[in-house]
């Protein structure tokens, strides 16, 4: 796997608390010292937040469409 994808996967596993304890500790230490990793983690958090918001918006639109079909 490409290094960039490995980094994304590692950060994703970290955010989901699915890394082994040793890797979690290693990543936490790396995050303390490496601003690039800090930025990557912040960007990944923002991306997940945007996906959640977009998903909720899509669900809201689908529910409104269903409501209109049923009650209009």
Automatic annotation (TrEMBL):
Q: Which domain of life is it from?
A: Bacteria
List the protein's name: Uncharacterized protein
């Amino acid at each position: 796997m490409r290094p960039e994808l490995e980094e994304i996967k590692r950060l994703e596993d970290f955010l989901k608390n699915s890394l082994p304890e040793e890797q979690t500790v290693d990543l936490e230490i790396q995050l303390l010292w490496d601003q690039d990793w800090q930025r990557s983690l912040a960007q990944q958090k923002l991306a997940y937040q945007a996906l959640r918001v977009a998903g909720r918006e899509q669900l809201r639109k689908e529910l409104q469409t269903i409501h209109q079909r049923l009650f209009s």
